[in-house]
Every structure is written in structure tokens, then in C-alpha cells.
């Protein structure tokens, strides 16, 4: 005869068995384990890289041939060295995107744009990219000056023939353009380690209507971290241009800051070329956000720059952007403080 306690235990065992049938004991711990393994610690997040091509005008200098002062005047190999190196190292450096800071060519000649197209096409299918127009990329007019011509007398350019909107519109990173028929002013977006980025590319000396358009693009994407790409923005002394020459009308760096950059809390960087040298200016926007404005231009170095480029490594675990200046043709770095430096930028909580 079973004791009262034994008799009472039978129904409890049955209930326990039913509970195990519908709610297996191992399931909650497995779910927790999956959640933990799917949540990356900042220390385990792989850094990613933004590649930057400064002025390449002397590498494409076939019309004015100003590059002859360095020899035979054909320096296109340095452009190819840049893009081949970026292509060959994009996996190692986890390069998410590349920007060209303008003055792609010297004097808006067809043969110059053909060189640029060939060089940049090396990246196709490997690294997404966008370009902005510099003063040398538009409005060439022959003249009797010491250069043999004037630049930026108007905004006509062969850029759209060699870098057509329809080609870039097929990429997943393409966002849109100011003019539905042209590629002069555009915006792109990409995602890296869970963060959304947007690059708005502006013509040299952007007109007010371009800045109005850019303001709307940025305002419509408050969840994106924004980089403004424009050619002529600041001097090598770290001060923004308050005016620019050339016959085209538009805004210089200080006006771009006042009318666009300072107004948005999600703009954190401006990238520019034009003025030979290196400079960094960090300013506080209207919302208290820090904006790093970075100038890179090596055209006045030997051989028109000799392939010097920059790449910026975003390190979320350290909340830093590590900036490197590298020459793929010579396989060497510039390590002075203006060439190798870190920028503070909040991406993740440290630790």
C-alpha cells in the first residue's frame, strides 16, 4: 500500500511531465545564449575605412601639360596606383566607401576624363565611390594667360559623359541627385557595423539652390551620420574660405558652414581639397555637435602628388577616427602630426 506522500507525488510527476513536453527545460537557456552571441561587444566590432582621393588633376593633365615640370608630363600611372591599391586592400582594411575631393582632371578635356574614368573604373564592383566637382573640372576657356586657359568660367563640364548618373543610379549606395539628368550634385548612403552614413557631394562653390537641396537631404535622414564632400572649403591654415575667385557664382567655405553644415546635428565631417596642404578644423555646430573639417591636397608635391592619398579608419570601440596618409607608389606613410592623427567621434560607449 502506498503512503499518502507517494500517492500525492503521482499527479505532480504527471504535471511535471506535461510541462516539460510543452516547455522544454533547455529552451530558455538556448534562447539566452543565442541572444548573447548575436550582440557584439564594441571591442569585437571590426573597424571600417573611408578612403579619400585628393586632387588628381596633374595625373590627367593632357590639355595644358603643366605637369611637364616633373618630366615627360604623363603622370597617369599615379592615379592607377591609387585605385589599384584601394581595390587590392579593400578587404584587409574593410573599406566601405571612397570619396574623391574634386579637381579630378586639369582642364575639362575629353582625353583627361578618359584617364579619370579608366582609373576610377578599377574600383567598380569592389569599392563604392562618389566624386565632387572642382574648379578644374568645369568651364574651361582658352586664353593667352601663362597657363593657356581659364577654368570655372561657367559650369559646363564633360564629367557627366564619363561619370553618368545612370551608371551610379544602379548601385545600392546611390541616393539621388539635385538634377535628375546630371551627376554634379549627389548623395550616397552606406551602412557599416550597424551605423548609417550619408555623403552629400556638392559642386565647387555651390549655389544657394544646391545648399537648399542639401539641407533637405540631410533633414530627411536624421538617423544617418552625414559627411559633406565639397572641393574648395578651407585653406591650409585651417580657416574656411570667405570668398573664392572664378566667374562661377556660389558659396565659399564660410557660407557653406553657415547655410548648411552648422545647422544639422547629424553632420560630423566635411572633406575638401583645392588648397595645397593639410589642415583640420573642428567647430561646434548649432546643436553643440562637433564637426571635423579636413583638408587634403598633395598636388604641389613632387610629380603632382605622386599618389599620396588618405584613408580614415573608424574605430567604434575607441570612439576615434584614425587618419592615415599613404603613398602606394612609394609604399610609405607621412607621419607628421598633420598627416597622422586621430579625431574624436562618438560611435559606441567605450568599454
Outline of the structure:
This protein is α/β, with parallel strands linked by helices and 351 residues long. It has helices at residues 4-22, 27-38, 76-93, 110-121, 159-162, 165-168, 208-219, 253-259; strands at residues 48-53, 95-100, 129-131, 141-142, 149-150, 174-177, 186-192, 195-202, 225-230, 267-272, 277-284, 290-297, 309-315, 320-327, 332-334, 341-344.
Topology pattern, helix = H, strand = E: HHEHEHEEEHHEEEHEHEEEEEEE
CATH class of the largest domain: Alpha Beta
Tally the beta strands: 16
Give the mean pLDDT.
89
The 3D shape can be described as globular
Structure, explained:
With 351 residues, the protein is α/β, with parallel strands linked by helices. It has 2 domains: 4-36; 48-344, Metallo-dependent phosphatases (Purple Acid Phosphatase, chain A, domain 2). 25% of the residues lie in helices and 25% in strands. The chain has helices spanning 4-22, 27-38, 76-93, 110-121, 159-162, 165-168, 208-219, 253-259, and strands at residues 48-53, 95-100, 129-131, 141-142, 149-150, 174-177, 186-192, 195-202, 225-230, 267-272, 277-284, 290-297, 309-315, 320-327, 332-334, 341-344. The strands form 3 sheets. Strands 1, 2, 3, 13, 14, 15 and 16 form a 7-stranded mixed beta sheet that branches. Strand 2 (95-100), helix 4 and strand 3 (129-131) form a beta-alpha-beta unit.
Topology of helices and strands:
Elements: H1 4-22, H2 27-38, E1 48-53, H3 76-93, E2 95-100, H4 110-121, E3 129-131, E4 141-142, E5 149-150, H5 159-162, H6 165-168, E6 174-177, E7 186-192, E8 195-202, H7 208-219, E9 225-230, H8 253-259, E10 267-272, E11 277-284, E12 290-297, E13 309-315, E14 320-327, E15 332-334, E16 341-344
Parallel strand pairs: 1-2, 2-3, 8-9, 9-10, 10-12
Antiparallel strand pairs: 1-13, 4-5, 6-7, 7-8, 11-12, 13-14, 14-15, 14-16
Helix pairs in contact: 3-4
Amino acid at each position: 500500500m502506498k503512503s499518502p506522500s507517494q500517492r500525492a507525488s503521482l499527479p505532480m510527476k504527471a504535471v511535471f511531465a506535461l510541462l516539460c513536453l510543452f516547455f522544454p527545460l533547455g529552451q530558455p537557456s538556448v534562447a539566452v545564449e543565442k541572444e548573447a552571441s548575436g550582440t557584439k561587444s564594441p571591442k569585437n566590432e571590426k573597424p571600417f575605412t573611408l578612403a579619400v582621393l585628393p586632387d588628381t588633376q596633374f595625373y590627367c593633365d593632357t590639355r595644358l601639360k603643366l605637369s611637364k615640370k616633373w618630366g615627360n608630363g604623363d603622370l597617369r600611372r599615379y592615379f592607377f596606383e591609387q585605385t589599384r591599391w584601394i581595390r587590392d586592400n579593400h578587404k584587409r582594411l574593410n573599406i566601405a566607401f571612397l570619396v574623391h575631393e574634386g579637381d579630378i582632371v586639369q582642364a575639362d578635356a575629353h582625353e583627361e576624363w578618359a584617364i579619370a574614368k579608366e582609373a576610377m573604373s578599377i574600383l567598380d564592383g569592389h569599392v563604392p565611390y562618389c566624386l565632387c566637382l572642382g574648379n578644374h573640372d568645369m568651364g574651361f576657356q582658352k586664353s593667352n594667360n601663362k597657363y593657356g586657359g581659364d577654368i570655372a568660367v561657367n559650369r559646363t563640364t564633360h564629367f557627366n559623359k564619363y561619370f553618368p548618373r545612370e551608371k551610379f543610379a544602379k548601385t545600392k549606395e546611390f541616393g539621388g541627385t539635385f538634377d535628375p539628368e546630371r551627376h554634379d550634385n549627389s548623395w550616397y548612403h552606406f551602412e557599416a557595423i550597424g551605423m548609417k552614413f550619408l555623403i552629400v557631394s556638392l559642386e565647387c562653390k555651390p549655389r544657394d539652390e544646391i545648399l537648399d537641396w542639401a539641407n533637405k537631404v540631410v533633414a530627411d535622414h536624421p538617423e544617418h551620420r552625414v559627411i559633406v564632400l565639397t572641393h574648395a572649403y578651407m585653406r591650409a591654415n585651417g580657416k574656411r574660405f570667405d570668398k573664392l575667385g572664378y566667374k562661377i557664382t556660389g558659396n565659399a567655405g564660410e557660407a557653406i558652414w553657415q547655410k548648411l553644415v552648422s545647422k544639422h546635428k547629424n553632420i560630423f565631417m566635411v572633406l575638401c581639397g583645392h588648397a595645397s596642404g593639410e589642415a583640420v578644423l573642428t567647430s561646434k555646430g548649432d546643436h553643440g555637435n562637433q564637426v571635423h573639417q579636413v583638408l587634403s591636397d598633395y598636388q604641389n608635391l613632387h610629380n603632382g602628388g605622386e599618389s599620396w592619398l588618405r584613408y580614415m579608419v573608424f574605430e567604434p570601440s575607441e570612439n576615434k577616427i584614425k587618419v592615415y596618409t599613404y603613398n602606394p607608389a612609394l609604399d610609405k606613410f607621412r607621419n607628421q602630426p598633420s598627416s597622422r592623427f586621430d579625431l574624436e567621434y562618438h560611435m559606441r560607449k567605450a568599454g
